[in-house]
User: What shape does this take?
Amino acid sequence: MDFDGIIDALDKDDDGDGIPTKDERGDANNNTIPDYLEKPDVIPAQQSVAVPTLTEWGQLLLTLLLGAVAVRRYNKVIK
Assistant: This one.
């Protein structure tokens, strides 16, 4: 039963694992649980990497420029 709205007797893939029922071997992973009773394996989502946006790069650049101006003015005051 895969809750796809088709009764299992007429469903070509009655367990929803993507393998037609006629091609299934019964217990493909040999864990003593028949394949039709197991939930299909879900492929984990790929990890995403955070990339700074243009706005974030702009904020970083502005911070560096303001820091450079502050250091330059500080050096002028000390002399």
In short: The chain is about 30% helix and 0% strand.
